[in-house]
Amino acid sequence: MKTSDILICISRLLFPFILLYGFYIIINGHLTPGGGFQGGAILATAILISYFIYPEKIRDLNLLIKLEKYVFMVILIIASISLFTKGEIFTSFISIEKSNSFKSLFLIILNLFIGIKVSTGLILIFSTFIEEGK
Amino acid sequence: MIKKVILIVMLIAIIFIFSNVALKSVENIDSDSKDYYLTNTYNDTGSKNIVTGIYLDYRLFDSIFEASILIISVSGIIYMSKKDDEVL
Predict the structure, then answer these.
(1) Are residues B20 and B37 in the same domain?
(2) Which of A4, A124, B15, B32 is most buried, judging by how many CB atoms fall within 10 Å of its CB?
(3) Is A69 on the interface with B (CB under 8 A)?
(4) How many Å apart are CA A79 and CA A86, to the nearest integer?
(5) Together in a domain, B60 and B83
(6) Angle at A97 between CA A93 and CA A80, to 5 degrees
(7) How confident is the model at residue B83 (pLDDT cuts 50, 70, 90)?
């Protein structure tokens, strides 16, 4: 795959800003439009840009597969903690009498893990396609 | 020939039923759940964005399965793309 030098140069410039914007969308998911799924998709685009920058680099997909599985298990565990604190499964584990800013902690944690999981899933999909086409 | 006639009759019936439902449902719209979420979401979940409050607190059960759809599709793609002697 041959790409132009201008595209590679601009991609190197844009790469950290796209990562930063993706994490911003994920962390502020409970305040502004966005959330785990949307921010994870933006993070996956940042990794897609790194295929322009280093086309010859060999990437280890086994690590990503393991990461996605374990993060999904962590999401299940975090969602099930409320069974012990509230008696209901799949809600927030923080009591409803606490202050609003403390209750948003649950949303931030779950948004972060969902973002990691979605981004690794999308990275795996297109990197398997790219590895096939080589 | 008979199959085509039956298909056309079925399509006309579906269009008739759906347009009927869509025209009549305007009078029956209920705003109870909308009002509930607008007034209570910030105090229940601590989320200023109501969408996040719904999909991470009220409807977390659906959200978990939405996340599992992606893991299933990824495992399907990896299974179809791997070579015979290669074990991932």
Answers:
(1) no
(2) A124
(3) yes
(4) 12
(5) yes
(6) 10
(7) low
Q: Which of A98, A94, A72, A96 is nearest to A85 (CA)?
A: A94
Q: By residue range, what is the domain housing residue B3?
A: 1-27
Buried b (16+ CB within 10 A) or exposed e, B68-80: eebbeebbebeee
Where residue B35 falls among pLDDT bands split at 50, 70, 90? very high
Confirm if A103 and A93 have CB atoms less than 8 A apart.
Answer: no
- Which of B42, B60, B61, B88 is best to mutate for the A interface (most A CBs within 10 A)? B60
- Asked if A27 is an interface residue toward chain B (Cβ–Cβ < 8 A), one would say no
Does residue B2 sit in the same domain as residue B15? yes
Comparing CA positions, the residue from A119, A65, A47 lying closest to residue B82 is A65
pLDDT at res. B30: 82
Q: Report how many domains make up chain B.
A: 2
Identify whether the C-beta of residue A84 lies closer than 8 Å to the C-beta of residue A8: no
Residue of B nearest to A77 (CA): B64
B44 and B72 belong to one structural domain: yes
- Residue B10: φ, ψ to 5°: -65, -40
Q: What is the average pLDDT across B29-58?
A: 89
What is the predicted pLDDT for the residue at A115? 94
